Amino acid sequence: MPRGRPPGPEGPAGGEGTDAPGLRLGPERAESAPDGEWMIRLVPGAASTKTYRCPGCDQEIPPGTAHLVAWPAGSRGPADRRHWHNPCWQRRLQRHVPGRPARRAGR
Ligand SMILES: [Zn+2]
């Protein structure tokens, strides 16, 4: 694993949450899940100004939709962030209930 930072104009180190200046997002909170430690931040509809794709359902999250951003705890930088529908984030956990066969939607 190379530890070098990718070249880019964005300031590294410490600064976080600078991708949406002026927007008021919810506070970060840590969440422990069967698949790891995550940081979650709620995004109110008013602060959602772009279309994102939810990795849970593979549908778009239109602007103005309240949702959440999750990224692995310990991740540096916004590259690992994923925008989820709130219910999709919760449903993600259900998939990891032990003893339950994983249901995969066929592609
Ligand atoms: Zn979704």
Structure write-up:
The termini are far apart. A hairpin with a 2-residue loop joins strand 1 (28-33) and strand 2 (36-43). The strands form two sheets. A four-stranded antiparallel sheet has the order 1-2-5-6. Residues 11-18 have low confidence and may be disordered. It is globular. The longest helix is centred in the C-terminal third of the chain and has 9 residues, at 86-94. It has a domain at 28-94. It has one helix and six strands. It is mainly beta. It binds zinc ion (ZN). Zinc ion (ZN) binds at residues 54, 56-57, 59, 85, 88. Zinc ion (ZN) is lined by residues 54, 56-57, 59, 85, 88.
Number of strands: 6
Mean pLDDT: 79
Radius of gyration from the CA trace? 15 Å
Distance separating the two termini: 32 Å
User: Ligands bound here?
Assistant: zinc ion
SSE topology:
Elements lengths: L27 E6 L2 E8 L8 E2 L6 E2 L5 E6 L9 E3 L1 H9 L13
Antiparallel strand pairs: 1-2, 2-5, 3-4, 5-6
The chain binds zinc ion.
